[in-house]
């Protein structure tokens, strides 16, 4: 494809996306197709090139019906995955430049724009100063958790790089921590038995610090080696917030790496009125917040900071001959390949940069505050309805509710709303009780959407 | 940004990329900037949104001078990273749709288009039938190697998931294998001591199977547990090809997982005349080829197949309550989150699909064959010049050469060409000798570019 063809077809693609975004709210949120339908509609890869029109036609005919629409204003499932249009254009520029930023020298701008933004966000989010210079973009919070764990293992043992894990390492999560932490322990060779699941307060679902303290002491007494604690600010199930400051004190006593996972709630740190949720973060060893969830940035872009980039790099680096270069050897540059699982890397900072410049920090804050406000409205409506109740307190823009008649009624209402197509809700289980999660956060969601979803739930 | 604004600005962005691609050949391939220059040019994140013009201006003013141009026709460094324009548009569509395909149900099309293409490529590349149904897109070959290793560990021990690694596992590579395999062993908790680096034939740099056989036997005799052998088809240094069939026989005797890394050379399997390089692949347990290197697909998109998807999924799966859904529980669908390190995933198949439909299989073959032919020309020119010689035989489109006067002369010539700006070459070390790698593979590279680079090398 020559640049002039790209110019013409590219305009069509842009228009296709604009049209899609204009009409996405009229589509059923969840795809209605049966397993195998999409495949049944697809042609073999052609031997001869066929132009672009067929692909665009198949998008309309097959892909759109086969898609669950994460950008739909009625998407309240999981957590939002904002793919704001300026971030889409930033990502397009990244693909168009086609650079691969594994080393500083393979594209200095790819590295330095990222360093600049990650340092700027330390200030904008009120993060601890010790994270300055320690920021890097990861693909997802799962990968961020894994690299944090590897850094913790390396800090915990001089011989981890050479000899691997010992089998006496232990890792601490709460019963509400995201499954990616337990999975990271498995991938790192620790086994699931190394993971201690600490109980939570039944009222808030936040980690029980006394139970954590006791478990760590018990492990130390029996010769185990505590490596990492993961505290969460905004759990996936209900948005619970672990007491980071108290957890940090326990970690400090035992020299344990404290990773703070704020994959969803992290962007709220841009709003001074929410900073209290991040109390104690200055004692964390690493911190993760996903720009690709609630922060208007097209998937995938996870913001990760560590106070110990030297440890992280030392854990992950390897330098074969074919990657040697004078810039690296000068020590004057950062090579981000040593900060992540893959070797190669996209210029992801471009989609973050374009989003931040388009909206400005005030625009992003308005986006976050708007959803918190809508969730507050929903919360007030639930409280005013005697047939429904909040299962746990609202957390930012996440409302977790259930019908007073019990699990069957709650599930039936959720299923009815999901079947109707104008909203998509998912569930969790809280203290054994089935509950609906309403995660407000799509860019296009307005009060009338939330009102309609609530009316549908009540009448179901 | 509203759809109508996106339409207008999107057209400008498309035009910017078209202009960039039209002029990229006139820019110096390598960025000429000093460490820190890019950062020094960047403004703070604005408080108020500022539109898109400033970003585009900064691309011209800061990013382009700060970029090493991987799409430049004079890019012969590392391996190519083809970001063909139809794949750029496919990736744009992925961002525009903004779906997150962690589960089948979160976007059936994201999963099923990928399944379709991966199965189709089994046929198109002449891959073993046992890979059908076992294909998945990974971000990079490094991640592919890591998931292969985790699957191998799980297959090798019933208790790996629960108890982690034992410390007696061993992994086998050659001295020429990509560093990502040793790194994967470190990340998986095995430690570098678990990795046996097997010697190679000095003439071809392919793995010495007798040495491999002896090392495995010696390890087994001393109570170690061989887990994985990585064979490479097209090593990073020189494009060497390991004898997969013979290595597979050794693996079969000991029940060892055979991972075949063809990150760069893999797409050549689309050409029947190159299939001999893949002899024995039907005995491999997993196989990796990067579409984002030499196969016209914008980074990142690594093609990975395993003959044992059940083992892979069992190694990586974890199912918390908030991800439960009826489609998953029916068993009728694939949830690709269980096939990879991250949880979330982009609709990467779109950029592969758009590329394959635009060029057709014949177009991709023509791309590959054109580079092999250019490398053959360069090979003939080197052979005809008594001051230069091939250090190892040409491998596909990779030519590894050195000046007969020794390392200083070779390095000086490379540095002179790189400083001049119209070509970018990197190096390797072969049997202790400094050698220039000429990896031909940019989409725009033509004979006159290779000729000019060769003339520049000779006159340097």
Automatic annotation (TrEMBL), chains A, B:
GO terms for molecular function: aromatic-L-amino-acid decarboxylase activity; pyridoxal phosphate binding. One of its GO terms (cellular component) is cytoplasm. Its cofactor is pyridoxal 5'-phosphate. It comes from the Bacteria. This is Aromatic-L-amino-acid decarboxylase. InterPro entries: Aromatic_deC (IPR010977), PyrdxlP-dep_de-COase (IPR002129), PyrdxlP-dep_Trfase (IPR015424), PyrdxlP-dep_Trfase_major (IPR015421), PyrdxlP-dep_Trfase_small (IPR015422). It comes from Saccharothrix espanaensis (strain ATCC 51144 / DSM 44229 / JCM 9112 / NBRC 15066 / NRRL 15764). Belongs to the group II decarboxylase family. One of its GO terms (biological process) is carboxylic acid metabolic process. The modification N6-(pyridoxal phosphate)lysine is found at residue 293. Pfam families: Pyridoxal_deC. It is an enzyme of class 4 (lyase). The keyword Lyase applies. Keywords: Decarboxylase, Lyase, Pyridoxal phosphate. The keyword Chloroplast does not apply. Its EC number is 4.1.1.28.
């Amino acid at each position: 494809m020559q640049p002039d063809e790209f110019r013409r077809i590219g305009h069509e693609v842009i228009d296709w996306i604009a049209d899609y975004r204009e009409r996405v709210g009229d589509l059923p949120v969840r795809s209605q197709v049966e397993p195998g339908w999409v495949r049944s509609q697809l042609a073999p890869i052609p031997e001869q090139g066929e132009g672009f029109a067929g692909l665009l036609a198949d998008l309309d005919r097959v892909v759109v019906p086969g898609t669950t629409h994460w950008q739909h204003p009625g998407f309240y499932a999981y957590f939002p995955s904002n793919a704001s249009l300026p971030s889409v254009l930033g990502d397009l520029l990244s693909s168009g430049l086609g650079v691969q930023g594994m080393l500083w020298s393979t594209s200095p701008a790819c590295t330095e724009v990222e360093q600049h933004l990650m340092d700027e966000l330390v200030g904008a989010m009120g993060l601890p100063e010790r994270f300055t210079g320690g920021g890097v973009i990861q693909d997802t919070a799962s990968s961020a958790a894994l690299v944090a764990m590897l850094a913790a293992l390396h800090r915990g043992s001089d011989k981890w790089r050479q000899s691997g894990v010992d089998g006496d390492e232990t890792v601490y999560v709460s019963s509400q921590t995201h499954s990616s932490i337990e999975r990271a322990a498995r991938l790192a060779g620790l086994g699931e038995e190394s993971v201690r699941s600490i109980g939570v307060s039944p009222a808030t679902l936040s980690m029980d610090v006394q139970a954590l303290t006791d478990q760590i002491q018990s492990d130390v007494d029996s010769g185990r080696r505590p490596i990492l604690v993961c505290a969460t600010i905004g759990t996936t199930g209900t948005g619970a917030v672990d007491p980071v400051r108290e957890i940090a004190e326990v970690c400090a006593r035992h020299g344990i790496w404290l990773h703070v996972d704020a994959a969803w709630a992290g962007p709220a740190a841009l709003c001074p009125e929410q900073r209290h949720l991040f109390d104690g973060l200055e004692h964390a060893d690493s911190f993760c917040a996903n720009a690709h969830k609630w922060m208007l940035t097209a998937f995938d872009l996870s913001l990760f900071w560590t106070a110990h980039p030297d440890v992280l790099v030392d854990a992950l680096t390897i330098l074969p001959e074919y990657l040697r270069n004078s810039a690296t050897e000068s020590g004057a540059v950062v090579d981000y390949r040593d900060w992540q699982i893959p070797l190669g890397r996209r210029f992801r900072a471009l989609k973050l940069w374009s989003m931040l410049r388009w909206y400005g920090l005030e625009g992003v804050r308005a986006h976050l505050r708007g959803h918190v406000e809508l969730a507050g409205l929903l919360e007030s409506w639930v409280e005013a309805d005697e047939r429904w109740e909040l299962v746990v307190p609202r957390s930012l823009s996440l409302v977790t509710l259930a019908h007073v008649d019990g699990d069957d009624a709650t599930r039936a209402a959720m299923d009815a709303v999901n079947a109707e197509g104008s909203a998509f809700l998912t569930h969790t289980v809280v203290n054994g009780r089935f509950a609906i999660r309403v995660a407000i956060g799509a860019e296009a969601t307005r009060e009338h959407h939330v009102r309609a979803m609530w009316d549908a739930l009540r009448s179901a």
